[in-house]
Write a structure and sequence with these properties.
- The complex is a heterodimer of chains A (291) and B (364).
- Chain A is mainly α and 291 residues long.
- Chain A has a single domain (77-289), classed as MetI-like (MetI-like fold, Orthogonal Bundle), CATH 1.10.3720.
- In chain A, 71% of the residues lie in helices and 0% in strands.
- Chain A is globular and about 75 Å long.
- Chain B folds into two domains: 5-224, 3-Layer(aba) Sandwich (Rossmann fold), CATH 3.40.50; 236-357, OB fold (Dihydrolipoamide Acetyltransferase, E2P), CATH 2.40.50.140.
- In chain B, helix 4 packs across helix 5.
- Chain B is globular and about 75 Å long.
- Classes of the chains: A mainly alpha (291), B alpha+beta (364).
- At the A-B interface, helix 10 and helix 11 of A face strand 6, helix 3 and helix 5 of B.
Chain lengths: 291, 364
């Protein structure tokens, strides 16, 4: 069993990543001179990583302003989406796990799951309609007389954050739900009986208990948000670029797989490192996530 | 400080199901009071109504004379010890104990000091830095008591907290709880289905059945002077003989049963009259073989089973009518019990038997 899992991991995950890693340290001979591929000049180089940090040789700036700033903006936005999802999903997960009963709980779970039968692209375009100039939200706000001009939710990236946030709520809700469900109700009642306010009960009893679930939820949402492509492509404002879009451009329109690989690897390693640091700060061990 | 607890026509209903039916009683401040009854009799619901987790459907709960309607469990002068204790597993022992102070915003040094004092009180000195799961069952028990006492409740509510312990420890903790109650000087309200616990610890016991309080008395009265057939059959072992009352004179009823005509005292609380359906109850230890003394109430029986328990012989006898009679004979080392299957005559004195109005008996 363990052997099969190991084989699976090696074939499906490790090997392709190793190819990408190998790519990222090579020149894009495909475009420069395909005949030199595999020849004596085809050696490992840091040129792609150098480009991400400093741009082309004739770049007047001290570093690659566009790519680096998009990179950090993407990470920051992913953190924001994660926190937003946590704030939204913790109450839902808690309600599902501790308060809701029987049919009501099942109905709520269905209401959470069924929208995800709609595929990602369709959902993203639906959000565009929802948040567009003549979309449902603007129409409603204007109909109520709250605003006179439609708000450009797409330009302000509200649509993007909403779309990304919504895309991953299940990944946040279910890990938290799983853990909180196993919390003995008496613990909550005992804390309440000893005089704790709702806030205090959550801070001292429920959240510490739910920490493994919160961590695994946050990790998944953060990783997936930072690596999302469709939602930023469709819902992102004209001025906003997601780092994945740059990667995609290198791979696709740029036909520069080595550079795309380098960018993708930097994104992946940064995300992993970031998650590990946050886990260290909140004193969560990696083994706890698996629970 | 200890407060009295008053239940004033308290009903608790869940849909059509009545969990507590018209409970009326006053528990004195500083009293050790138990609710005793089989599972599902409504005793836990009543406890939750006192602690504030369950609002009564009707009636009032008063603590220290104050109506508790609309006051949540976090604002009542009560603390509840849960059946499974519900200690916080991610906190150390001292953090558990001082949680009530933490909630009030007391500084850490004072909290620690109070926790150490309470650990002393429950005889667990120096265990404050351990985690809860490093403790044994009995130690957890004490931590739960200390944690509840730290809230300085006027009334401590205990929901069968000893049920998870083994017999020896349970017996030890009974004495301990009683001692802690007296040291703390507050009202204890104890829920249990174990009559041993209720009788040994309590000043008074309320026996409950299907949401109704059948009797409220001290332990000896509950045992010796039950007021209903349910109480007589639930508390302690009892033999029962159903029949109809022939006469009642000077508090002595004559009851005709399939096993014979028996005479027994009646309850002043639930008197009988001629023609009533009644049950005569006799404790196994009140029955003896004939011959040692003269007995008023005599039954011819066959000995069908015997168990030796050291200080007692427990015998099972069958009357000719088919009725099963249990009898306990003190093992004083001077006599032998009859052979299995032999016919003997047994009897019991009038004053050791009680005739009560016919009613539902406790399940075996």
């Amino acid at each position: 069993m363990l052997g099969a899992v190991a084989l699976w991991i090696i074939i499906m995950i490790v090997l392709p990543q190793l190819f990408m890693l190998d790519f990222s340290f090579r020149n894009n001979w495909q475009q420069i001179d395909p005949s030199k591929m595999g020849g004596p000049e085809d050696v490992y180089t840091l040129v792609n990583y150098h480009f991400l940090a400093f741009g082309s040789p004739n770049n007047p700036d001290p570093f690659n302003v566009v790519d680096v700033s998009v990179f950090f903006r993407t990470i920051l936005a992913a953190v924001f989406v994660t926190l937003f999802d946590l704030a939204l999903c913790y109450p839902i997960a808690y309600y599902l796990a501790q308060a809701a009963k029987g049919a009501k709980a099942r109905l709520l779970v269905l209401a959470l799951i069924i929208p995800f039968w709609v595929n990602e692209l369709l959902r993203a375009f639906a959000f565009r309609i929802l948040f567009g100039d003549e979309g449902t939200i603007n129409a409603a706000l204007m109909g109520l007389g709250l605003i006179e001009q439609p708000i450009d939710f797409v330009r302000e990236n509200v649509a993007l954050y909403a779309g990304l946030g919504y895309a991953y709520i299940l990944l946040m809700i279910f890990p938290i739900y799983n853990v909180v469900e196993s919390l003995d109700k008496n613990q909550i009642e005992a804390a309440r009986d000893l005089g704790a306010s709702w806030w205090k009960i959550h801070r001292r009893v429920v959240i510490p208990f739910a920490k493994p679930g919160i961590t695994s939820g946050c990790t998944m949402v953060f990783m997936l948000s930072a690596g999302a492509l469709a939602a930023p492509q469709i819902l992102g404002g004209p001025s906003s670029l997601w780092f994945t879009q740059i990667i995609y451009q290198w791979f696709n329109t740029g036909s520069n797989w080595p550079r795309g690989s380098a960018y993708a690897i930097v994104l992946m390693l940064t995300c992993v490192l970031f998650v590990l640091i946050v886990m260290k700060i909140f004193k969560v061990k990696i083994g706890e996530i698996g629970r | 400080m200890s407060a009295d607890v008053q239940l004033d026509n308290v009903w608790v209903q869940f849909g059509d199901f009545v969990a507590v039916r018209d409970a009326n009683l006053t528990i004195q401040g500083g009293e050790f009071f138990s609710f005793l009854g089989p599972s599902g009799c409504g005793k836990t619901t009543l406890l939750r109504a006192i602690s504030g987790f369950q609002e009564p459907s009707q009636g009032r709960v008063l603590i220290g004379g104050q109506n508790m309607a609309g006051i949540g469990p976090n604002h009542r002068p009560t603390a509840l010890i849960f059946q499974n204790l519900a200690l916080f597993p991610l906190m150390s022992v001292w953090e558990n104990i001082s949680f009530a102070l933490e909630v009030k915003g007391v500084d850490k040094a004072s909290r620690r000091k109070k926790a150490d004092e309470l650990l002393e009180l429950v005889a667990l000195p120096g265990q404050g830095d351990k985690m809860v799961n490093e403790l044994s069952g009995g130690q957890k028990q004490r931590v739960a008591v200390a944690r509840a006492l730290c809230a300085e409740p006027e009334v401590l509510l205990l929901d069968e907290p000893l049920s998870a312990l083994d017999l020896k420890l349970r017996q030890h903790m009974r004495t301990e709880l009683r001692a802690i109650q007296q040291r703390a000087g507050i009202t204890f309200i104890y829920i249990t289905h174990d009559q041993g616990e209720a009788l040994t610890m309590s000043d008074r016991v309320a026996v409950m059945r299907e949401g109704v309080i059948d009797q409220i008395s001290d332990g000896t009265t509950v045992y010796d002077h039950p007021e209903t057939a349910f109480v007589a059959s639930f508390v302690g072992e009892n033999n029962s003989f159903s029949g109809s009352v022939k006469t009642v004179e000077d508090g002595i009823a004559t009851v005709e049963t399939p096993c014979g005509v028996f005479r027994a005292r009646t309850s002043t609380v639930a008197p009988l009259k001629a023609g009533d359906k009644a049950i005569v109850f006799v404790r196994p230890e009140a029955i003896d073989f004939l011959g040692s003394t003269d007995r008023e109430n005599v039954v011819e029986v066959t000995l069908t089973q015997q168990e030796f328990e050291g200080h007692f012989w427990h015998l099972v006898l069958h009357a000719d009518s088919g009725a099963k009679i249990r009898m306990s004979v003190m093992n004083d080392g001077k006599r032998d019990t009859p052979e299995l299957g032999s016919r003997v005559s047994v009897g019991f004195p009038i004053l050791s038997a009680i005739a009560l109005v016919s009613g539902e008996l406790a399940a075996d």
